[in-house]
Design brief:
The protein has about 425 residues and is an alpha+beta fold. It contains 14 helices and 9 strands.
């Protein structure tokens, strides 16, 4: 057993450590609550970083430092109060690093956020909170000057995941290819469509942004009044497509069954969760999303059950070498459940598209109402981004109302008018 007190002592903590005890039940890092004696000293969170997953700890902590510093700057500029509870704070060692290596493991310490809690509940209310929180998170980081590294290379790269599956099929290590040929055929039918994000990126049509890449309800902290304080668990924050944060939440949150459900009749796509999360996400992210990103949100909802189906199936063919299993067919059961979820998403795609378009139309109507009720210059002055303001100014010189109706799909979500 490690002497945890001696590890904490490597960091610049305030106060006297009184107690260190396990905190939470995270699947990746070992986490401990560090209580201090003094009433005016903060408590802390000690974590052992899972070096097997996050192999470049220097990059990991550099990413987190850049993200938290930028968010703190944004909150300060916005005149926010209680900032120390709205962004994570990591302590440095005497050497100036935000981690310490004991010869075996990597450790870090962050300030414990008091009077805050997380929730596991996935319902429309908390899905809406999640959508807005992760949308806001991406929006605050849209202009971060630093270039972040990939803490897990190719984590959500669909072309890479398909290559892994095809390599597994070619090797057929466990002799299981024949029994899963139906799923292999179905995956290949969709392979070109599901790899389009990488193609659009290479063509310069789809940007990569700073994304959280682990969007779950329990990765948000709430205050005493039930309001979102901040997004936590920043280990997977890295450059990705916005589809990562949007689609990954819906894969788990909008699944009416379990990830490894044997009863496929229980597995369907929950449109109420989709609508609540999407409405919140668009509200939080409307300042930076491009038309091609918005247009492909239904694609993102399908991408992640497809991707996870590919990953589970590849592991099953390889002989279950990556995911932990409880019985020999576990990865095959997971594959079938994810494929059923994918089919349900595909069935709901027209409804998803209609809902997103309706959200855009409602915002369009709201902006037109503002233009009718107020001087156009007043509306222009409500928009903080210079480039967006210039676009609207140029448009208003021609015919503001007609322009808003005709081109809202192109620039409406960039308009930061408070609706």
């Amino acid at each position: 057993m490690k002497d945890l007190s001696s590890i904490v002592a490597k960091f610049k903590v305030q106060g006297t450590v009184e107690e260190i005890k396990p905190l939470g039940a995270g699947l990746i890092n070992d986490t401990y609550k560090v209580n201090t004696k003094e009433a005016d000293a903060p408590d802390y969170v000690l974590q052992r970083i899972n070096h097997a997953i996050f192999q470049n700890v220097e990059m990991l902590q550099s990413n987190i430092a850049a993200v938290t510093s930028h968010i703190r700057k944004k909150l300060t500029e916005a005149g926010e109060s209680d900032i120390d509870r709205k962004v994570l704070s990591f302590l440095s060692t005497e050497e100036g690093k935000t981690y310490w290596f004991d010869g075996d493991s990597y450790w870090r310490v962050m300030v414990f956020i008091p009077r805050a809690k997380t929730y596991e509940t996935v319902n429309p209310e908390y899905s809406n909170y999640a959508g807005q929180a992760f949308g806001n998170f991406q929006a605050m980081l849209a202009d971060i000057p630093e270039t972040l590294g990939e803490t897990i290379p190719d984590f959500h790269n669909m072309e890479f995941r398909l290559k892994q599956l095809r390599d597994a099929v070619a090797t057929n290590a466990a002799g299981r290819v024949a029994e899963v040929q139906y799923y292999l055929d179905e995956i290949e039918k969709r392979a070109d469509e599901m790899s389009k994000a990488e193609r659009l990126y290479r063509e310069g049509k789809l940007p990569k942004r700073v994304c959280h890449c682990d969007t779950k309800v329990n990765n948000m902290m709430f205050d005493e009044d039930g309001k979102v304080l901040c997004v936590i668990d920043l280990d997977t924050v890295m450059p990705s497509f916005i589809f990562s944060d949007y689609g990954d939440f819906l894969r788990t949150g909008a699944n009416t069954g379990d990830e490894d459900d044997k009863d496929l009749d229980r597995v369907n796509f929950n449109m109420e969760i989709f609508k609540a999360f999407t409405k919140g996400y668009l509200k939080g992210a409307k300042s930076f999303l491009t038309p091609i990103e918005i247009e492909n949100l239904p694609y993102a909802a399908a991408l992640f059950p497809y991707m996870q189906c590919v990953r589970f199936l590849a592991d099953y063919i390889n002989g279950d070498t990556y995911y932990k299993i409880k019985y020999p067919e576990h990865n095959l059961v997971r594959t079938k459940a994810q494929f059923k979820l994918l089919q349900s998403v595909e069935e709901h795609t027209p409804e998803m598209t209609a809902f997103i378009n309706n959200c855009l139309l409602l915002w369009c109507q709201s902006i037109v109402k503002i233009l009718v009720d107020a001087e156009e210059q007043t509306v222009i002055n409500c928009i903080p981004h210079g480039a967006v303001r210039l676009n609207l100014l140029n448009a208003c010189c021609v015919d503001s109302r007609k322009w808003i109706f005709l081109t809202f799909n192109r620039v409406l979500l960039k308009c930061c008018v408070s609706l």
